[in-house]
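Subject: for your reference before the review

Hello V.,

The reviewers asked for a structural picture of the protein, and I figured it would be easier to keep everything in one thread rather than splitting it across files. Below is the amino acid sequence we used in the manuscript, unchanged from the supplementary table.
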Amino acid sequence: MKDGNHTMSQTKTILRALAGETLPTPPIWMMRQAGRYLPEYRATRAQAGDFLSLCYNPELAAEVTLQPIRRYGFDAAILFADILLLPQALGADLWFVTGEGPRLSTITQAADFDRLKPVDEIDAVLNPIYETVRILRQELPPETTLIGFAGAPWTVATYMIAGRGTPDQGPAHALKAENQALFEVLLARITAGTIEYLSKQIEAGAEVVKIFDSWAGSLKGEDFQKYAVAPAREITQALKARHPEIPVIGFPREAGDGYIGFAKATGVDCVALDNSVSAEWAAAHVQVDGCVQGNLASSHMVTGGQALVDEAKAIVQAFSGGPHIFNLGHGITPDADPDNVQRMIDAVRGQ
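And here is what came back from the structure prediction:
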């Protein structure tokens, strides 16, 4: 951090946990904390017109990023954007179908790949995202950490190959098997783009970056090493070379035993955990290597009640022996009750 921010950075609880400090109360933020479960988000999105217009409007994107900070006082804000903005910047067509999610033009043959743009042209599309980061760095409370993010190359590739989300990432697995050369050159382009995208977020003011590998769990054996671990290591090493003071969080969702050793293999400062592994297991096998983040089931944000309180406290207790950032095991869902978010925060902070 530069001199003016150095002292404050040492007091930000998330940065302390990421540096390996065990804190009496874990810092807390929540994946998708700016989102459809909040009425103020829905109002701002209506003002923007549609999802992509909201992502590319720096003032409104900053506003929805700030909304959960105002309401709940989370220890971190995560930039409001989408992992598919990078493929769009690389030249893929991107649109959203109401109620169904994203659609992209597909990459299934060399000619499709050849139409993509070089990495040095992505900023023409992504500059509004960096402006959002700059606004947030000015407007966030001084104690709140700003997190930037991108999708991991494998996860982004699954969308670019299939043109949409799929339950089993079948099209990406098929291309990997049938045309490995094309698959790997696509992954390399995404990896290079991700490095530049995250680096520019850091230059704009992000204090931490997170790599979301939402579909890492469908990679098995050697494929997990080649297409989840290796790209995360390449991205992390490149960012550390440029920005040695900036921590990196990796999230190889549903990696199972692949969580073990992930921090050492990639160089990330923290491993985010989904809720398919128990906090007790993760404390024994993952937290031994450093900071972990997670991992309350997001369904508790819908159902609430004493079960929410008990499970949140159990996770805090399980991870109390090492550095821990409290979070959900996946993003909060649109049907969540905002009151349950406050219940979770109160349980974690012992109120």
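For the response letter, the relevant points are probably these. Residues 188 and 226 are 12 Å apart (CA to CA). Residues 1-8 have pLDDT under 50 and may be disordered.

Happy to draft the paragraph if you're swamped.

O.
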